[in-house]
Specification:
Length: 663
C-alpha cells in the first residue's frame, strides 16, 4: 500500500511565559498509508492534537518534517480537511450553504450545476436531505457534526483529519455517527487520522492505533495493528477474538502512563535506616495465590522486622506491568514468573538486555492446564482426545491462553503439547492474556483452555466453565513457579537492602508453607488489596501425602529443603525452552548469564542469618514426565534431541559488565 503521509523525526516545543520552552513532542516517526484509518490515543496533554495540527498544516514542527504525497506540509489546504469537536459551522448559513461555501471555494472551475450536485450528494451521504435548509441552531449536536463531516468530504481531500469528532455527543448519537463514518470511509477508501480518548471507538474504527506517551517530550509508545476484517459491525467487532486483547492492550498502556505520571509527581528520596541503604520500597505483584509471601510479609510485619519500614505493595494487572515497572524504575522489585529474569537479561522484552537478579524462589508448582467444558462435551478427557479433536476440527482456530512468554505456564504448556505430538505454534495458537481475563475468555468460547496458577483453574471447574486436564506436578513436579526479581544495578546499589528483603520474604515463605495457616492466608488474600475474591476460591495446597487428585494444581510449595534456593540448572533449562520457541536466541555466554541471574550468595547470607540449615542443599536432577533427560553439560545437544521446536539460533547476549547506574 502506498504511503500518503510521512512524519519524520518530528518535534514540537512551545515558548513559556517568563522564558524557556515546553517540549510537547519528540522523535515522532509515523507512516500513514493510502486508505488507512489511524487513531491517536493517549492522556490529555500528550500532544495528540498538536500532532494532528502539524499533519494538517495548522502548525509547523520545530524539528523534523511532515510529508504529504512526498511534499513538505507547510500550510493548511483543501487536501487536508479537519473536523473539529466543536463543529465550526457558520451559524447564519443553512446546512446546504455551509457545505456549498467550501465547494465553491475549492472547485471554482466546475459549473454551478456541478457544484450543486456535489453539495447535494454529500448532504444525502450523511442523511441530512430533510434538514438541508435549516441553520445549525435548529440541528442537534450529532446533525451538526454530520454537516461538518459532509463539508470536509465534499471537497475531495487527500486526508481527513478528525479531532475528537464525537467527544461532545451522547452515546447513541456517537454510535450512529461512528457507523456512518465507517461506511463512508469504506465506500470511498478515505485516508483518515483521528484523535480520540475512547478506547472502544479506536478499536472499532481503526486499522492501526498509535499510542502516545506522557509529556513533556511525548513519543510513540506503541502501535497496534487492528486485525478485525472490514466492513465492520459493532456487535461483530465485540465478539471478534482480537477485540478484548486489543482493548486490554490500550487500557494497560493508558493505565501504565497514568501510574508513571503519578510516580513522577511524588518525591523520591531514598530513605536509609537500620544499616540499610534503602528502606522505602515499591514491590510489584499480580493477584494470584502465589503472591501470598508478599502479603504475609506486609501483614505479619516481616518487612518491618528486617528494617524495611516503608514497603508498598503495588498491584499490577499483568506480568507486563512488572516488566515495565522494573524497566522504568517505578518498582524496586517484583514477584515474577521464574523465566522472567533470564528472559529480560537476554533481551526477550524487546529492549536492550536488562540484567535481572533473583535471590529467592518464592514458590514451586501450583499451576495447571484447564480446558473448556464444551470440549468435554466433544469427548475430550485426555491429551490424546484433545489431539484427535484438533485433527477433527483443523479448519477452526484453536487458542490456548498463557499469561506471559517467559512464564512456566507457557513453557510447561508448550512442553506438554509438543511431547504429545501437538505443535504449539502450528496446531494451536498460544495467546498472552491477563490472568483475570482468562476465565471470561474460556466462558465465552474464544479460547479452548489455558495454563495458569490458582485461583483460576479451581474457579473454572467450580463454576462449570472448564475442567482440569493435567496438573503441573504431572509434567514437572517441583518446578520453580514464582521468584523475587530485582534489577542487577539495584542489587549492587543496595546490597544490604537486598539481603533484608530476601530474609523478610523467606521468613514469609516459611509461614505460608504451614497448613495450619492456610485458612488465615485465604482470609488475608481475599482482601481487595490482594486478590479481592471469596475466601473459599483461594487454595494453597493439600497436606503432605494427600495427592489423590492427580490433576489438582493446589500443591504449591512455599518452603522446604531446596525449595527457595535459586538453581542455575533450572534457569538453564528455562533458557533452552525460551530458545526452543524462539523467544530469545540461546546465549553463547549462558554461564555468565546464569551466574549473574542466580544470586546464590544473597540467598545463602539471608538463610544463614535466619538460622536455616539448608543453605547448601541442592535439588535433584530435572525430570519431566516424558523421561527425556536434560543435559545441562551440553544444552545445544539437548535442544537438538527435541522433536518439535522452532529454528533456534545461538548468539552472544551483550549484557555488559555489572555496574551501578544512577537510580
Amino acid at each position: 500500500m502506498t504511503t500518503l503521509v510521512a512524519v519524520q523525526d518530528v518535534a514540537k516545543d512551545f515558548p513559556l511565559q517568563g522564558g524557556g520552552n515546553y517540549l510537547a513532542l519528540k522523535g515522532i516517526d509515523l507512516e500513514i498509508r493510502k486508505g488507512e484509518f489511524i487513531s491517536l490515543i493517549g492522556h490529555s496533554g500528550c500532544g495528540k492534537s498538536t500532532l494532528l495540527n502539524m499533519i494538517a498544516g495548522l502548525d509547523l514542527p520545530t524539528g523534523g518534517t511532515v510529508l504529504l504525497d512526498g511534499e513538505t506540509v507547510k500550510r493548511p489546504g483543501p487536501d487536508k480537511m479537519v473536523v473539529f469537536q466543536n463543529y465550526s459551522l457558520l451559524p447564519w448559513l443553512t446546512v446546504r450553504e455551509n457545505i456549498a461555501l467550501a465547494v465553491d471555494e475549492v472547485m471554482p472551475d466546475l459549473s454551478a450545476a456541478e457544484r450543486n450536485a456535489v453539495v447535494e450528494e454529500h448532504i444525502a451521504m450523511v442523511g441530512l436531505a430533510h434538514a438541508a435548509d435549516k441553520p445549525p441552531l435548529q440541528l442537534s449536536g450529532g446533525m451538526r457534526q454530520r454537516v461538518a463531516i459532509a463539508r470536509a468530504l465534499a471537497i475531495k481531500p487527500k486526508l481527513l483529519l478528525l479531532d475528537e469528532p464525537f467527544g461532545a455527543l451522547d452515546a447513541l448519537t456517537r454510535g450512529n455517527l461512528q457507523e456512518k463514518l465507517m461506511q463512508i470511509c469504506n465506500e470511498h477508501e478515505l485516508t483518515a487520522v483521528m484523535v480520540t480518548h475512547d478506547v472502544d471507538e479506536a478499536v472499532l474504527l481503526s486499522d492501526r492505533i498509535v499510542m502516545l506517551t506522557n509529556g513533556p517530550g511525548s513519543k510513540i509508545g506503541g502501535i497496534l495493528e487492528v486485525d478485525i476484517p472490514r466492513p465492520r459491525q459493532r456487535l461483530e467487532v465485540v465478539h471478534h477474538p482480537s477485540y478484548y486483547s486489543l482493548r486490554s492492550e490500550i487500557i494497560y498502556f493508558l493505565n501504565r502512563q497514568k501510574r508513571v505520571k503519578q510516580w513522577q509527581a511524588k518525591p523520591h528520596k531514598v530513605l536509609a535506616r537500620h544499616g540499610l541503604e534503602k528502606v522505602n520500597l515499591d514491590l510489584g505483584f499480580i493477584p494470584l495465590a502465589a503472591c501470598a509471601p508478599l502479603a504475609v510479609a506486609e501483614a505479619k510485619g516481616f518487612f518491618a522486622k528486617h528494617g524495611l519500614d516503608e514497603v508498598h505493595l503495588v498491584r499490577e494487572t499483568s506480568w507486563r506491568g512488572i516488566t515495565d515497572g522494573l524497566l522504568d524504575r517505578t518498582l524496586d522489585a517484583g514477584l515474577m514468573p521464574s523465566g522472567m529474569p533470564t528472559w529480560m537479561t537476554a533481551g526477550g522484552h524487546g529492549g536492550d538486555p536488562t540484567p535481572i537478579v533473583t535471590a529467592l524462589t518464592l514458590s514451586r508448582n501450583g499451576n495447571g492446564i484447564t480446558l473448556a467444558s464444551r470440549l468435554a462435551e466433544q469427548g475430550v478427557s485426555s491429551v490424546a482426545d484433545y489431539r484427535d479433536y484438533l485433527l477433527r476440527t483443523n479448519r477452526e482456530s484453536h487458542t490456548l491462553g498463557i499469561v506471559h512468554p517467559a512464564s512456566m505456564h507457557n513453557l510447561l504448556l508448550r512442553y506438554w503439547l509438543a511431547s504429545n505430538a501437538i505443535d504449539p505454534d502450528r496446531d494451536v495458537h498460544l495467546q498472552t492474556i491477563p490472568p483475570a481475563q482468562m476465565l471470561a475468555d474460556l466462558k465465552d468460547g474464544s479460547i479452548d483452555g489455558y495454563c495458569i496458577g490458582e485461583p483460576w483453574n479451581y474457579r473454572a471447574e467450580r463454576e462449570g466453565h472448564g475442567f482440569p486436564i493435567v496438573g503441573d506436578i504431572e509434567i514437572w513436579d517441583g518446578h520453580p513457579g514464582k521468584v523475587l526479581g530485582v534489577r542487577e544495578d539495584w542489587a549492587l546499589a543496595y546490597p544490604n537492602t537486598h539481603i533484608a528483603l530476601t530474609k523478610a520474604l523467606l521468613e514469609a515463605c516459611r509461614y505460608c508453607a504451614d497448613p495450619a495457616h492456610w485458612d488465615e492466608l485465604g482470609a488475608l488474600l481475599s482482601d481487595r488489596r490482594y486478590l479481592g475474591m471469596k475466601q473459599e476460591l483461594i487454595r494453597f495446597g493439600v497436606p503432605d501425602g494427600d495427592r489423590d487428585n492427580p490433576h489438582g494444581t493446589a500443591h504449591t510449595l512455599f518452603f522446604g529443603p531446596g525449595v527457595n534456593r535459586p538453581s542455575r540448572s533450572e534457569h538453564l533449562w528455562i533458557l533452552t525452552q525460551l530458545a526452543r520457541w524462539s523467544e530469545i536466541p540461546f546465549p553463547r555466554n549462558y554461564v555468565e548469564i546464569l551466574e549473574r541471574v542466580c544470586s546464590v550468595g544473597v540467598y545463602s547470607t539471608a538463610a544463614r542469618e535466619l538460622g536455616l540449615d539448608d543453605v547448601s542443599y541442592q535439588r535433584g536432577g530435572i525430570e519431566l514426565f516424558d523421561g527425556v533427560p536434560f543435559n545441562a553439560d551440553d544444552p545445544i545437544s539437548y535442544l537438538n534431541t527435541l522433536s518439535i521446536h522452532q529454528d533456534f539460533s545461538v548468539a552472544e547476549i551483550p549484557v555488559g559488565v555489572p555496574r551501578i547506574l544512577a537510580t
